[in-house]
Fold this sequence. Notes:
114 residues, mainly alpha, flat
Amino acid sequence: MTTLTPSSAQAGWLPGAAGLLEVAWAVGMKCANGFSRPLPILLVLAVALASFALPGLAMKALPVGTAYAAWVGIGAAGAALLGAVPFGEPATLARVGCVLLIVAGVVGLKLIDG
């Protein structure tokens, strides 16, 4: 059995892809209506599993802090933005500022680690 080991270039985009998947499963949980709809639940679980797998691969070539911060940072920022736009959740100045701090932290870690 062969194991997948990403190149540095591949490892760089894997946490971002995982972050987008995290946004998808977070929104999917909202659409699952309290886990009362079977199909959305199955989709959420499949997407969440993929979201966990990609950072695991990335961590073979990236520092754990950078990979994890990018993964959850993109997920948190994306979920907050999607919560505000289609679901009408509050988009106050404080919430937007906090999302920008998350993004700044992810970008900072990426710049420090190269």
